[in-house]
Specification:
The protein is mainly alpha-helical. It is built from 10 helices and no strands. α5 packs parallel to α8 (118-141).
Length: 221
């Protein structure tokens, strides 16, 4: 990365770092972009040069989040099951208390700010939808090995599989949030979610690699 790109990244990070404490203290809807600019020591126009919307300021790592599952699928070892790859990544993050999962002291306030803002809830749904879409693309480009013959890249079941994987991953994180916000000790919540997530992903993996009797599958009349 050149000096110009490095300085641009530093400015972007500085703006986001100035914005988050304001959002956490006052709430997303109560903070203006002008206030963020003032705290960051830049103009309002500069903020918009780096962040198209105020929601982008709050979710400043959304591109990384959207592409995470797809990247795991694309970069997995040859022959590795995509479900197992994503399961293992999630369990490792839980075991190491990865801050990206919200296992830190500021996380409950961060989650509550999202709950209190319709705009942030809508953006969170958009991020989830895009993450699922790029995961489906990654599965089509790098399909799993199966014995049933539907693992060609254009098969519609890959889109459904992406929904199942992304849904299980999203549900695990949402349940982790719910438990911590309800007052459960984070380590207890983490351990419970790790056990449940392992079971859920194992079921998905088992179904993916089981030879179903395709002749017995009939649409309802």
């Amino acid at each position: 990365m050149g000096l110009r790109e490095t300085k641009k990244q530093q400015t972007r990070t500085a703006i986001a770092d100035a914005a988050l404490p304001l959002f956490l203290e006052h709430g997303f809807d109560q903070v203006t972009v002008a206030e963020v600019a003032r705290h960051a020591g830049v103009s309002t126009n500069t903020v918009f040069n780096y962040f198209s919307t105020k929601e982008d300021l709050f979710f400043d790592r959304q591109a990384e989040v959207e592409g995470h599952l797809a990247t795991l699928v694309r970069d997995r070892a040859p022959g590795a099951c995509p479900v197992e790859t994503i399961r293992d990544d999630l369990l490792t993050a839980l075991r190491h208390e990865d801050p990206a999962l919200g296992l830190h002291s500021d996380a409950p306030r961060f989650w509550q700010v999202i709950r209190d803002s319709a705009a942030l809830r809508a953006r969170e749904r958009e991020i989830s939808e895009r993450a699922e879409a790029v995961l489906a693309t990654a599965l089509a480009e790098h399909p799993p090995n199966t014995a049933t013959g539907w693992n060609r890249g254009d098969h519609p079941i890959l889109t459904l599989l992406a929904g199942a994987i992304a849904g299980a991953h999203r549900a695990a994180l949402r349940e982790l949030q719910r438990r911590i916000l309800s007052g459960e000790p984070p380590t207890d919540a983490r351990d419970s979610i790790a056990t449940a997530a392992a079971q859920a992903f194992n079921l998905l993996c088992s179904g993916l690699h089981t030879d179903a009797d395709q002749t017995s599958l009939q649409l309802p009349q």
